[in-house]
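2024-03-11 09:14:02 INFO queue: dequeued item histidine kinase, len=436
2024-03-11 09:14:02 INFO validating residues
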Amino acid sequence: MTRTGEERAVARTGPWWWARWRSAVLDGGLAVVSALECGVEGIPFARDAGIPVSAGVVFGLLAGSVLLLRRRWPIAVVLVSVAITPAQMGFLMGVVGLYTLATCELPRRVIAALAGMSLFGTMIVTFVRVRQDMARGDLTLGDWFVPFAAVTTSLGLTAPPLLLGLYVGARRRLMESLRERADSLERELQLLAERAEERAEWARGEERTRIAREMHDVVAHRVSLMVVHAAALQAVARKDPDKAVRNAALVGDMGRQALTELREMLGVLRSGEPGPERVAVPLAAVGAAAAAAAWRGAAGEQVVAEGPCLSELEELVGQSAAAGMVVQLSVEGEVRPYAAEVEQTAYRVVQEALTNVHKHASGARTRVRLAHRVSEIAMQVENEPPPRAASASVRLPSGGNGLLGMRERVSALGGVFVSGPTEAGGFRVSAVIPAV
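2024-03-11 09:14:37 INFO prediction written
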């Protein structure tokens, strides 16, 4: 894993301006070697200049030790090396200084100017020295050797460190840009992973809410009808045995239907198809959109395909009528098929509304209206005030989640849900769902 720029800045462990102790030791070693070189070269310089040898040695030691500052002030190091070139000192300082200067992020014109000064300074000094040697008779070559030696020596001391420094600096900047890009990509991947984990948690929560709605619709409606039939069975068990037998049979049918629907839902949860919990693992890699699509495709469509539809609405109303409710169903418009989730939502809205009538308004007259429109389907369940005697006959517990679940179902499909009491004292539930 790469380190960010802030982490690399914090990781500086060297003294002063050095990032690492290794760099400080290297520069210190180079400075010592350069100082010794200049100190030795200061001896002939002192003799030629007519000054004490000790002064020449001290001057060489001080000038050579400037190489210690090559990382901090590379321009100063190059200028010092150019300044002591006439004294035939600082060859190591000049080479290392030019290399360091070329690796720095300085304007190219500054690097070119200082490199040109070093090149011409070395060329002039070499030209003069070689010419003096030939004049003294130390060299017996032709006149062509003087400019050749000057050009060759100046290029040999200037071009290699300059080109190597430019290459190393370009490579260093390239690696730094690659590190920054890797750090940026790593941060983006981390953010994507965190966002994917949030979406995974959201998908799991949505699936838990959906399963809770399904369980509520199945259990609340069937069990409510069973309780109503059981109460009727208790009331007529002695007076009308035949009716008691029919109510007992209805209770058994309701229980078997409830168990069948519960088994279907549990079968979906336990099947080998990837559900929301199984999709949670690849969510960290594929992101939110793919997670939602995978969740809907893997879990949602299978449950919707096995859910109820509008063709079973008459049977649903018949079950409530068999439980003693005075209920009337009216259908308007041309009957046509809809998407599975639309039919299931419409069915569940009517089912939950009838369940609420059984719970809170037992014995009340109820009207169920279903309207097939051009681009939408509308449903309304309205009950009158319950009779006083009937309202206290059966008491059913309520979790208070029925209306909330209906609103969530309808809103998820882009529909409108309205519920509330009527002026006559009853209750009305209305929903409009787009026919997608």
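2024-03-11 09:14:37 INFO annotate: The first helix runs from residue 5 to 10.
2024-03-11 09:14:38 INFO item closed
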